[in-house]
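Morning, I've got a small favour to ask if you have a moment. I'm working through a protein record and want to make sense of it properly. The fold is given in discrete form, as structure tokens running alongside the sequence. Can you walk me through what the tokens say about the fold? Thanks so much in advance, here it is:
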Amino acid sequence: MKSMIWLMACVAGLSASAFGAPPPGPGGEGPGPGPGPEGRFEAKAPTEAQQREVLDFIQQHNPEMAAHLNAMREHEPADFRRRIREIYHMYSQPEVRETWVRQQEAEQKVRSLADGYRKADAKQKEAVRPELEAALSDEFDAKVAEHELRVKKMQEEIGRLKDQIAKRKALKSQIVKKRFAEVVGEDVESWNW
């Protein structure tokens, strides 16, 4: 049960690990796919080949999570499709992917050393303790790196939004005229209000 809770936390954490804004839309401008029915970002579904690539990546770095995802694919296909989109969004960002791998490796090392420590006698615990403390320090650093990257992505998104606001303010009169024509039915071409 404890490992299933941990596994679900890892899988759920991937969507949070995808940090930041959605990928750019066509032409590299503006956000890509918009929010889904519940207001959350919904990335474009990865192809079968991309799903296999992501699952191989997860298998390499977290076999338990890969097994859970494969079971989810068979028994809960809608949840699997949503999860794989979130994971692919993380995977498609090299900096985020590297941070996630670093965190997975640190967490696995801590779990392994902690298990060994709990099973060890007093003399063996003395030998394992410094290594476990170093692994905990590495795990902490990996989590801080994730938070720093998240802040960086947020700052980039804030910069993009500020630019977009400034551009829209500069074009206010044109936007209002266009919207007026749209609202009263004089314009058949829609404007992104």
Remarks:
- The radius of gyration is 23 Å.
